[in-house]
Design a protein that fits this description.
The chain is α+β, with helices and mostly antiparallel strands. It is 74% helix and 8% strand.
Length: 599
């Protein structure tokens, strides 16, 4: 009988080592750490029948397979092992479909537990190995520690205690490494090492590990752990013939087991005390311990009968409920089929309407696309025609300017020949040919560089100076920010203003005349300044009214038209401003023309 009680004690230790794993608050899967889950996991060892009912109800509501796992565990605690195995095997495919690795690992652990109880060690090892692999894959370290303890327990109960101790120590190191030192998992590992040494006869080593675990559980007041470890320590001291320590830890085991009403441990402890007092010769005390043993044993048998009756009642209630649920499910299935049929009809009608609506919208979008595409195509054609017309208009204006300039130059050459200045005329003709060639080349291009425009104006001013009765000073100044070779402007843009300043502004022979062209870059605009100290626009207009010649100055008007055309053709931002300069006495001090071009 003593051996039977000891086996029961070892079995309690084994189940305790497994069950503590799932009370860890360190669990990575926070969806299983709320109050309802945690309370049920703690309650399952005291009221498995209650947990069984609750887990079924919760699963019907949530369809969370963790509740099915709790149902399997509760069936195992009630000792309905076949039902637990059947349910676990039935729901594993569904859990695999959901890819819930955590719940799948726990189910394999429960299957391993039941097979271990049945003595199917190979099947137990297989399912423990699956449990171990899964929890290591998802890095659930509290459960990893539990998996190593499971594996060690199998080897320990097969009298391969050395392998068991290696696995217990590996579990201890894993718990410390991953920050579980503040939990009771490391001390469960120590208690397991002590247990393996205890059954292998290494009592001193067992006590070393037992004491560390015992001190921690005394400090944290975990009574269930204290009872189991105190019983193990009493067994060690018994074999080491230390009567004082044996009695002390036996009393501790009795004291705490009475608090929890653990009848198995109470029977084992009373039996060991009875044997101790009988060997000592104290038969009275031995008889008292034996009487206590018998009382507890009878109470235990009565409790087992009550539990068995409760289990049978529970099983009957569950079977009855299952039958009722089956009938309800059939009725519900028929009703669902009718509802599903109607729903399919409504869904078909709705999808058909949606298809019609989608087709109408699609056709409308296609028509809209072609309408917009056609309009854009017409706009592009109109814009192209408009740009072509502007380009032709620009060429016409430029062609209008070139004859006007050539006429003025030929007039100057004619004047030189009339006054018999042949050398000057030849020089003039040479420069004029250079100028004419440049004008002809520029007329073929939309833009020329500022450098080319400056060279053309320099040659033109030299020609005008050669035939002018009172020479003038012509200067060109460029700011450091301006590189004439890199800036493009429309050809013959500035020449009409230079010509106008010389022809109509420099008619007063009594004062020296000065014509200044300056260029600078500000804020992305090229600013061109044509500044003269001539007689001014008002006096020039008066002179033209008194002239008998029918010559009219078209250059400035043509340039204004060109600027407006360039704005439209090239979207060019260009402005022109004419300033009449005045002296302090109010008389004219010349004219200043400012042209700004975006570059």
């Amino acid at each position: 009988m003593l051996q039977t009680i000891r086996r029961i004690v070892y079995l309690i230790i084994f189940f305790f080592c497994q069950s503590v794993l799932y009370g860890q608050s360190e669990n990575t899967w926070k969806q299983y750490e709320d109050t309802s889950y945690t309370n049920l996991k703690d309650l399952i060892y005291y009221r498995p029948d209650y947990v069984l009912r609750i887990s079924r109800m919760r699963f019907d509501i949530t369809h969370d397979y963790y509740w099915k796992y709790l149902e399997v565990k509760a069936l195992g605690e009630i000792a309905f092992y076949d039902q637990a195995l059947s349910l676990a095997y039935r729901i594993i495919p569904e859990v695999e479909k959901q890819k819930n690795i955590y719940v799948l690992a726990l189910l394999h652990h429960e299957i391993g537990q039941v097979n271990y109880i049945y003595g199917n060690n190979e099947k137990a090892k297989y399912h423990y190995a699956l449990f171990k692999k899964m929890v290591f894959d998802i890095k659930s370290y509290p459960n990893c520690v539990g998996a190593l303890i499971d594996e060690g327990s199998i080897y320990t109960h097969q009298n391969q205690t050395e392998k068991g101790i290696v696995l217990y120590k590996e579990a201890y190191q894993l718990a410390i490494k991953h920050g579980l030192s503040d939990t009771y998992l490391p001390y469960i590992c120590l208690a397991s090492i002590g247990y393996a040494n205890n059954i292998s006869g290494n009592y001193k080593d067992a006590l070393t590990y037992y004491r560390r675990a015992y001190n921690y559980f005394i400090h944290t007041n975990r009574i269930r752990n204290i009872v189991i470890i105190a019983a193990g320590m009493a067994n060690c001291y018994k074999h080491l013939s230390d009567s004082q320590q044996f009695l002390y830890y036996s009393e501790q085991a009795l004291y705490y087991s009475k608090k929890m009403d653990v009848t198995d441990l109470m029977c084992g402890t009373y039996d060991d005390l009875s044997e101790y007092y009988r060997n000592k010769g104290d038969f009275k005390e031995a008889l008292r311990m034996k009487d206590s043993f018998m009382l507890v044993y009878k109470r235990r048998l009565n409790s087992q009968r009550i539990i068995s009756m409760n289990e049978l009642n529970t099983y009957y209630d569950l079977a009855k409920k299952d039958l009722k649920l089956t009938e309800n499910e059939l009725a519900l299935s028929r009703k669902n089929n009718i509802i599903q049929k109607k729903r399919n009809e409504v869904l078909f009608e709705r999808n058909r309407n949606r298809l019609i609506l989608f087709s109408v919208v699609l056709i409308g979008l296609i028509l809209l696309f072609f309408a917009v595409w056609g309009r854009n195509r017409r706009n592009r054609r109109e814009q192209s025609i408009k740009h072509r017309l502007l380009e032709l208009e620009l060429k016409a204006l430029r062609a209008q300017m070139n004859p006007h300039f050539i006429f003025n130059c030929l007039s100057s050459i004619q004047h030189l020949f009339l006054i018999h200045s042949e050398m000057e005329a030849n020089l003039y003709i040479s420069k004029f040919s250079i100028l004419l060639r440049s004008v002809l080349e520029h007329s073929k291009r939309d833009t020329i560089s500022l450098q080319e425009e400056m060279e053309l104006l320099t040659v033109y001013s030299e020609l005008e100076n050669m035939q002018f009765n009172h020479p003038f000073t012509f200067r060109i100044v460029t700011d450091l920010s301006v590189d004439p070779a890199l800036i493009d402007i429309p050809p013959m843009l500035l020449q009409p203003f230079v010509e106008n300043a010389i022809t109509h502004g420099f008619v007063n022979k009594d004062v020296p005349h000065d014509l200044l062209l300056s260029f600078y870059d500000r804020d992305g605009y090229l600013h061109c300044i044509i500044d003269d100290n001539g007689i001014g626009r008002d006096a020039a207009k008066a002179n033209r009214r008194t002239e008998t010649s029918d010559h009219q100055s078209h250059g400035m008007n043509i340039t204004k038209d060109r600027l407006e055309t360039l704005k439209l053709r090239f979207n060019l931002d260009a402005t022109m401003r004419i300033i009449d300069k005045k002296k302090t006495d109010g008389t004219s001090d010349g004219t200043r023309i400012e042209i700004s071009l975006m570059i």
